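queue> pop job 88
queue> type: inverse folding (structure -> sequence)
queue> payload:
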């Protein structure tokens, strides 16, 4: 599905909700004095985050999300103390986009991760976006916009960050276009984000050329032109001028700063996962064919195997996985992916054996833990499987598949309240209201203790928050 169509669906939903759910407002005190406080910013960010997470497909593999989070954390350590932590989500979409919403919520598309050539370029984009947050550019725009409703602001921000003709139409339909324009970053905002972001980038030990390299890639891909571009990018100062300014600044840095080097080992592994799972199959196959003759041969073989499995070429996938395992038998990621493949395709003994090995190599690998828990459940080791599945949910609490796994394991233990509760959560995070209501009603009827009732109240609260953005 194209970025344009995705934005149209999302923004149409926001528009409907803004008209139907107008009871949520920014505090009158803030409006009366033209002040948008840290508390207001946190509230807006939380709502915006719920909207994005309830409507867009998110990557749950902690190998990918954890990688981006580690870059963000590395950059954040160079910053003055912030009023809220940075929270990272990766959107499964091929548009080359990343944005930072109020309250420190960072969103990165898989398309951006694939478009960059070095980790420092990813870090350069993130440093720029994080600088918009630390300098409170959006907060200052909101103070000047005189918009009253919180949901109206959410709709405007979706149009600003997600872009497209449809985005503009939805914003224009819900409020004056001039008000929406007031939320876009000014030229001075962008220049400040360039300057402050460059400081964050170099202090974190990245080569400063990462920021200029990212801008050059974005310029070549014409990210800053066309109808599907986020609105906030259309007002950027001339990209060539900004690149020249940044290059001049890089030349003035001490030689030690200019000479900082990229370490792309983890970056290339994450790219291989994204390319194999989510990108155009023909382009992915060509990329892996080039890579398999170089120093990253083992990861390329893994990518070929994942791609073949995705295309249901089971025999080819099995052969490529065996080659990858022979190439790098101690590579935890390759072992995990091979175990996942064999388990899903029906060779459960081989799959569980490899997954056990992968978990022993990295106890924090959530995908390996998830499928190993499934395997243990199949083998009748239910208690151990439940503990492992609970560990998975602690890391990915909004993953529908993990809630369903835990529900089935609780069912085997005859704990029918928790089984129905987690099946309801599975429906919630699938945006499947019929499934949610069915199992929520069952769980409610089984809630016998105060702790059960507290769990039900929490589920109902989350449901109420998310359903505002459902069809």
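queue> result:
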């Amino acid at each position: 599905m194209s970025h344009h169509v995705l934005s149209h669906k999302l923004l149409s939903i926001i528009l409907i909700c803004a008209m139907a759910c107008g009871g949520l407002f920014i505090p009158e005190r803030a409006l009366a004095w033209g002040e948008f406080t840290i508390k207001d910013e946190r509230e807006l960010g939380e709502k915006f985050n719920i909207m994005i997470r309830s409507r867009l497909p998110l990557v749950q593999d902690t190998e990918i999300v954890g990688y981006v989070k580690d870059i963000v954390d590395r950059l954040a350590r160079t910053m003055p103390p912030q009023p809220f932590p940075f929270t990272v989500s990766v959107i499964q979409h091929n548009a080359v986009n990343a944005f930072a919403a109020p309250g420190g919520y960072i969103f990165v598309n898989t398309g951006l991760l694939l478009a960059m050539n070095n980790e420092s370029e990813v870090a350069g984009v993130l440093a720029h976006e994080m600088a918009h947050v630390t300098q409170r550019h959006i907060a200052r725009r909101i103070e000047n916009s005189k918009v009253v409703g919180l949901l109206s602001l959410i709709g405007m921000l979706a149009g600003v960050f997600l872009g497209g003709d449809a985005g503009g139409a939805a914003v224009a339909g819900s409020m004056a276009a001039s008000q929406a324009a007031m939320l876009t970053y000014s030229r001075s905002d962008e220049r400040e984000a360039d300057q402050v972001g460059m400081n964050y980038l170099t202090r974190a030990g990245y080569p400063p050329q990462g920021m200029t390299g990212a801008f050059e890639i974005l310029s070549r891909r014409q990210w800053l032109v066309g109808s599907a571009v986020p609105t906030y990018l259309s007002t950027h100062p001339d990209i060539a001028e900004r690149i020249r300014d940044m290059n001049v600044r890089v030349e003035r840095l001490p030689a030690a700063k200019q000479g900082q080097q990229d370490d792309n080992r983890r970056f290339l592994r994450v790219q291989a996962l994204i390319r194999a799972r989510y990108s155009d199959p023909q382009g992915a196959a060509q990329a892996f064919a080039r890579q398999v003759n170089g120093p990253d041969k083992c990861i390329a073989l893994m990518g070929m195997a994942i791609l073949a499995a995705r295309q249901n070429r089971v025999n080819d996938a099995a052969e490529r996985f065996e080659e990858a395992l022979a190439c790098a038998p101690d590579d935890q990621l390759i072992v995990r992916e091979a175990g996942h493949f064999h388990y899903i395709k029906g060779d459960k003994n081989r799959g569980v054996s490899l997954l056990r090995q992968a978990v022993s190599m990295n106890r924090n690998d959530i995908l390996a833990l998830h499928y190993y828990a499934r395997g243990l459940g199949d083998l009748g080791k239910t208690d151990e499987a439940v503990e492992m599945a609970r560990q998975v949910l602690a890391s990915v609490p909004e993953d529908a598949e993990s809630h369903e796994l835990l529900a089935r394991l609780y069912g085997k233990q005859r704990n029918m309240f928790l089984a129905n509760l987690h099946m309801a959560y599975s429906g919630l995070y699938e945006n499947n209201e019929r499934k949610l209501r069915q199992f929520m009603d069952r769980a409610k009827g089984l809630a016998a203790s105060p702790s059960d009732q507290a769990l039900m109240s929490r589920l109902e609260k989350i449901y109420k928050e998310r359903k505002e953005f459902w069809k």
